Amino acid sequence: MKLFVDVGNTALKWRVRDGDAVRQGGCRHERHWVEVVNAIEGVERGCEAVWVASVAGVESDAAIAAALEQKTGVKPQFYYSCESDFGITSCYPEPRRLGVDRWVAMLECFQKYGAGIIVDCGSALTIDAVDREGRFLGGYIVPGLGMLRGALLRDTADVHVEAGAARLELGKSTGECVHNGLLRMSVAFVTEVVLELRQVLDDTCKVLITGGDAPALIDAFEFDYAHVPDLVLDGLERIAAEKE
In terms of domains, do 111 and 222 share one? Predict the structure, then answer.
């Protein structure tokens, strides 16, 4: 039995693999790491290995490591971004400073499809590109839907915004105007970048969409894409299989 953990800026996701059986554990949107780790079920006995990809920071990683070792009896192995691995070469002058979730997603994309574009609709919306030679070309980072909504409403009184499906149309209330406007802005940004990158890479290259806000956006995308909710965990499994 092996445990794989993806720690983002605001959420922790996990997966348990026991032979051919896979149990997708879920996602907790909080940073009380001991409580979140304790919510992982079925790994108290017989856990062979624990692999973690984390962008939570040094102090949080230490707390997560201690909680996981207490929970499983196994010292977790953290994987971080590096200069090159699995055929990918980073363009960052300091490769370790690239968020490991982005790096792992690119590794998985390249190993499965070659050149590709990865759109992560998380607390931040990120877009990264890797070419057919495995060169990470760079990326974009902008606020995700939650950040945009929070920034807009922080100093605005009496506006109630309900999340919903992507509707790229004029709103009929202030809440709808905010919701639809943020969706349209995000969809337009992603679409423009994808179309531009497909001219550089290949007009048939894969576009992989992941992240917690993906369901709110993907119905409005008019380009071909694959929705891969657990892309980082998929990549982390691949890394663990090779490193072990």
Answer: yes
